[in-house]
């Protein structure tokens, strides 16, 4: 019996926050819940190496999306300010791709996502507040403190760059893992690839810890 599947959704029609959320959930499933990285203290007199770690589940929970009470759902992904004719929709991945490198990207985004485009300044501020609540940015600067000197650290976390980089690194390591396990255990490739990812990497890391190459 085949599992039921929902309707297919094109990535370029999804709001940017939804795209970043899906990337983080994919990373959580394939690699794990904990994001690990490091940076250097920005104080010239310190320069200590600082570890950065947080959990994807907690990060997403702190960026939970909500629709303000003064925003009404319209049709086809559009929303309306309550009691007004002004409409807007959330920027999508397709918008981001189309405006890449555009010198007037902000104005063009308003033209695509707001109707009418010549809204008043107060209406525009309300729309911006609504968008921030309904689609909070997941890529932004995060703050911490240096454990050595106590200085405030600011690090920009770019979801797409970080997660896609990690997944690319992991994809490249599959060949090394298969080679190592086949060489030392004489397992066929199909059996190695059929292993759960965590088990495959665990076996490969044990061999590396023993100095196997």
Overall description:
With 213 residues, the protein is α+β, with helices and mostly antiparallel strands. The chain folds into three domains: 11-63 and 138-157, no CATH class; 71-134, no CATH class; 168-209, no CATH class. It contains eight helices and eight strands. The protein has a four-stranded antiparallel beta sheet with strand order 3-4-5-6. Helix 1 packs parallel to helix 6 (159-185) and helix 6 packs across helix 8. It is extended and about 70 Å long. It starts with 15 loop residues before the first helix and ends with a helix. The model has no long low-confidence stretch (mean pLDDT 88).
Secondary structure: elements and pairs:
Blueprint: H1 16-30, E1 34-40, E2 49-55, H2 56-61, E3 71-73, E4 78-81, E5 87-89, H3 93-98, H4 105-113, E6 114-115, H5 121-134, E7 140-145, E8 152-157, H6 159-185, H7 189-194, H8 197-209
Antiparallel strand pairs: 1-2, 3-4, 4-5, 5-6, 7-8
């Amino acid at each position: 019996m085949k599992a039921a599947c929902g309707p297919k959704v094109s990535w370029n029609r999804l709001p940017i926050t939804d795209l970043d959320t899906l990337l983080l959930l994919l990373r959580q499933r394939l690699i794990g819940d904990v994001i690990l990285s490091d940076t250097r203290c920005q104080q010239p007199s310190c320069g200590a190496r600082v570890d950065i770690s947080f959990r994807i589940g907690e990060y997403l929970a702190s960026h939970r999306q909500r629709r303000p009470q003064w925003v009404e759902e319209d049709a086809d992904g559009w929303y309306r300010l309550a009691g007004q004719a002004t409409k807007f929709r959330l920027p999508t991945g397709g918008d981001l791709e189309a405006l890449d490198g555009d010198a007037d990207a902000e104005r063009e985004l308003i033209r695509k996502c707001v109707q009418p485009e010549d809204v008043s300044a107060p209406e525009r501020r309300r729309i911006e507040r609504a968008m921030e609540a309904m689609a909070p940015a997941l890529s932004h600067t995060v703050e911490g403190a240096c454990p050595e000197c106590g200085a405030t650290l600011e690090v920009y976390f770019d979801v797409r760059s970080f997660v896609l980089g990690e997944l690319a690194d992991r994809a490249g390591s599959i060949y090394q893992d298969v080679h190592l396990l086949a060489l030392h255990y004489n397992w066929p490739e199909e059996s190695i690839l059929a292993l759960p990812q965590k088990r495959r990497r665990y076996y490969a890391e044990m061999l590396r810890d023993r100095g196997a190459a």
